[in-house]
Amino acid sequence: MRRTTVSRTHPRLLILKPRHTTRARASCRVGRRANMAASSSLLAVVPALLLLLLIAPAPAAAASPSKRATHQPPPFPARASPLHQRAASSSGRYAASAAAATDNGTAKPFTAHYFQQELDHFTFTPNASGLFSHKYLLNDTFWRRKPTAGPLFVYMGNEGDIEWFATNTGFMFDIAPEFGALLVFIEHRFYGESKPFGNDSYKSADTLGYLTSTQALADFAVLITSLKHNLSAVDAPVVVFGGSYGGMLASWFRLKYPHVAMGALASSAPILQFEDITPWSSFYDAVSQDFKSESLNCFSVIKAVWDVLDDRGSSDTGLLELSKTFRACKTVRFPSSLSNWLWTAFTYTAMVDYPTPANFMMNLPAYPVKEMCKIIDSFPAGADVVEKAFAAASLYYNYTGDQKCFQVEGGDDPHGLSGWGWQACTEMVMPMTVSNESMFPPSGFSYEEKSEGCFASYEVRPRMNWITTEYGGHKIDKVLKKFGSNIIFSNGMRDPWSRGGVLKNISSSIIALVTEKGAHHLDFRSATKDDPDWVVEQRRQEVEIIHGWIDQYNKYIAQM
Q1: How confident is the model over 441-473, as pLDDT tens digits?
Q2: Residues spanned by CATH 3.40.50.1820 within the chain?
Q3: Is the per-residue pLDDT at 385 higher than 80?
Q4: What pLDDT is recorded for position 68?
Q5: Catalytic residues
Q6: What architecture does CATH give domain 281-398?
Q7: Comparing C-alpha atoms, which of 17, 12, 58 is closest to residue 340?
Q8: Mind giving me the DSSP string for 260-280?
Q9: Three-class SS of residue 28?
C-alpha cells in the first residue's frame, strides 16, 4: 500500500499547501514513504472550505522528515463495501430521529432526519440504485403554511458534519421569521453520518468514486424535490445557501437546477480558484497582506521564522529545544511539524478575522490578526523570533488559556473532513503557489507532481479541467450575463478565499456584495449587537434581494 502525507483542510475548503522549491523537493521525494509513517489524521479545522456563520457558539498534521513537506491525501486499500442504510419509516424514503441536545444541554435548533438516497444518479449499473441514509436537518418553527407555503431556505452541506455547519449558520435562523421560511440543512454525501458505505466509505476508489460534486448536487435536487412533495409544498420557492465550498455548490446548483432553486446566496465561494483564472499566489498573498496591514514588524517576524525553524530543527538537540519552546505534549520528530503548526494558525486566523469574538474553528477574540500582531510587537528588541511566532500562534490554539501542552504532531478530525483529500485529488484541483512577497516560504505548483501524489495515495489521477468544463469559470461575466440569474456572491476582502470569488456584478440579478473588512462568510454568522455597520448593511442588502426574488416568483405562480 502506497503511503504519503495528509493534506491540510480548511473550514470549508482544502488549503492546498503548494509544492516547494528546489532545495526541498529532493528531500520531499526521498522522505515520502516516511512521511505517512509520521502522519496523523486531518487537522480539526476548516479553511474550506471551511469552508462559515454563527447562531450560537459552535460545539466546543502530519509530520515529515523533509523541510516544509508537501502534503498528500491519505491512502486507502482497494475494497468495496455494502451500502450503509438507516431503517426508513412507514413514509417510505424518510426516517427521523428524536431532537437532540448540544454539549451544554440546550436543545438544538433543528431535528435530524434521514432520506433513502440513491448511490449513483448518473448510471444504471447494478450498484447505481442502491440506497444509503442521507442526513438532513429541519427547523419549521417559523414556516408559514397558509395561505401559501413559505419558502424553503436550503443550506448546501460542506465537507463535514452538517450539524456543525447548521449550528454556525445563524443568519438563516435570523431571517427565517421575516420570510416565514422552512430551514433545511442537507449533509454532503461521504461526510458526517451520510456515508454510503458506513465506516468503509473511504476504503478505496471503488467506494470513494461516488464522492463527487455532481453526485452531491443531484442528491440535493432529489431530496428537495421529494421533500416538497412530502410536505405538500410543491410550489414553494426554494433559495439555496452555502459558504465556502458550500457556497460553490449553491451557485452551481442554481445554474444546474434552476427548476429546483429560484435563487442562491453563495458566501465566500471561490468558484474561480481553478486553472489560470485566478493568480496562483493570490491566496497566500492575501493572508500575508492581512498581517502586513496590521504591522510590518509582525509580517517580517513571521517571514523570518521558517528558516530559523529549519536550521534549529536539523538536529535532535535542536528539535528537543524547539519542542520545549512550543510546549509540545510529546517531543516533536520533524521540524516540518512545527512549521505546519504555525502555518495553520496564521492562515486560519486570517480567514476568520472576524470583527467580533467567535469560536467557529477555535475560540478567538475580535480581529484576531490584529491581536496576534500586538503579541509579536510587544516583545522587546532582540527577542527570539521563534518565541515571538509561537506566542502569536498560541492565540489561535489557546486563547482560553486552558491548554497545558499542544499536540503539534497528531490530532483528530472531530468534524469529519477527511473526505476532502479525495475531492482535491479528483476534481477540486486549485493550484496554489507562494510568491516572494509572501510571509510564507516561496514555493511552486506542478500539475505533474500533483497527479503523481494523488496516484500514490488513491491510484487515481485528477481531472484538472473538469470543474471548469462542468460548471464554467472562464469569462464568467460574459457567460452568466447571457443566461444566469438570481445569485448573490458575497465576499470579504480580509478572507484569502475572496481572491477566487466573484467580486463584480455580472448582471442586474447576479450581484457581488463585497466588504473591505469582511472575513470568511462573515455574513452567515448570527447577528450580534457589536456587528459593524458594514456587516449589518451587507445582510440587509441580501435580505432585500431575496425578498425581490420571492416576490417575483410568487407573482409568476399566481399568474399561472
Answers
A1: 999 999 999 999 999 999 999 999 999 999 999
A2: 106-275+466-558
A3: yes
A4: 42
A5: 244, 495, 520
A6: Up-down Bundle (1.20)
A7: 17
A8: T-SEEEEES--TT-STTSS-T
A9: helix
